[in-house]
Amino acid sequence: MEEIARELSKIETFHDLLLITSNFHGDKVAIINAENESKKVTFSQLRNTALKVSNFLLEEAGLKKQETVGILMPNRWEHIAIHIGTSLSRLATN
Hints:
This protein has four helices and four strands, in the order H-H-E-E-H-E-H-E. With 94 residues, the protein is mainly α.
């Protein structure tokens, strides 16, 4: 329990919360699809997707920290991963 409390004290951003939560509860459900409750995403899946987004934005798209990214897409769980990925990259979403 002390380990969890120590890690939680490090939280400064929403993506910090996701990274810490996925370390302790990676196999737990993070998101349930409202239209189809059988479709679920775990904290590990959400973290891994957000990290891929972050890597893409910085490495492949060549964006720099503090630039703004626009997101236009249907309401899906990936939208959350993209927001977290941009936060991990220190980018702003619009």
